[in-house]
Structures are given as structure tokens and as C-alpha cells.
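Q: Focus on the chain.
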Amino acid sequence: MEEETAEIVGSKKKPILDWNIRYKIVLGVARAIAYLHEGCLEWVLHCDIKPENILLGEEFCPKVSDFGLAKLKKKEDMMSVSRIRGTPGYMAPKWTRSDPITSKADVYSFGLVLLEIVSGSRNFVQLDPKVESHQWFFLRWAFDKVFKEMNVEDILDHRIKHCYDSREHFGQRDPNDLNNNNPLHLDKSH
């Protein structure tokens, strides 16, 4: 498969990706972001994590692309003051207020991409007809479904909801998948 953008969200042209492939994509992107934030000699903020900047290679191996807005900083300089960069709808709220940015800005954007992958919808598409469009907020919708209504299934992509395994949601995957070398650990101090 040649590289292409991750049209895993609401695409009518591409085949629907199953949960295992989506999991592989999410895990790969998380590892890439962790590497940018913790594995490089310099601290790299991508500043524009979104589905269009995730390329899928052979066997759906994800590659984070488009570093045009990225910032390169010294490890000891973990906060950065910068003009607002990124794509509306994916930028962390703190950044839009011109607060200093940290790696949390990329983690926030990744969280939105993750939610899009799980739900099969873009974050700017209104999914609740009971809410007026000017009040629509994708994260609030997902939060309410999961934590207020306690119904994870409501946020899942309806096209493959029947394949959902709640054991995976509640962390009961094969323990061999989780090891001490798991690069998904993101230090919450920055």
C-alpha cells in the first residue's frame, strides 16, 4: 500500500478499517509523538497533529508528517512561547489563549484524533441533533456519553460497533502487549 493520509474517519471512498487496524494506527501515532517529545536529542513539538498529517504506509503503519509548523527546542526549555499555530479544531485551548505551549498541545491534538478514529466522525461534525450547532463541542459530547451516561458504545463508529470488545476498553488485553519498554508512557510533567 502506498502512503496516503489517514482517511479512517468517515471516508466513503476507502474501506472501513476494523478495530485492530485502528488500534495499530493509534498505537503507532502515540509512539511517534512520544518519540518526538522524549526520544529525540532535541524536544520536538509537532504543533499540527491531525488525520491529514498521518500517512499510512504498508500494512497501515502510520507515519506522522508535515513538520512545517513544528518547533525544535532544547530539552531544558520545556515550555515555549509562540504565536498560535495549527489547525482550528485540533489546537489545545491553552494555546489559543496565547499561553506558553508544552508537549501537552500535541497530546491534546492526538486525543482529538484518537476520538475521531474511535467514533468514525470528524470533530467538527455535529453528532447530537438535540444540541444547537453553535453549542456543539465534540469533546463535551464524548465526555458526556462516557462519563455521565456511562455508555462507551454510543461514541463508537456505528459501522463497526458490533466488533467492539469491552475487555479491550477496560484494559484487559493480553498482558504481553504491555511491557516495561512501552513507549506510550508520556511524562505528565511537561
Q: What stands out?
A: The chain has a mean pLDDT of 77. The chain is about 30% helix and 5% strand.
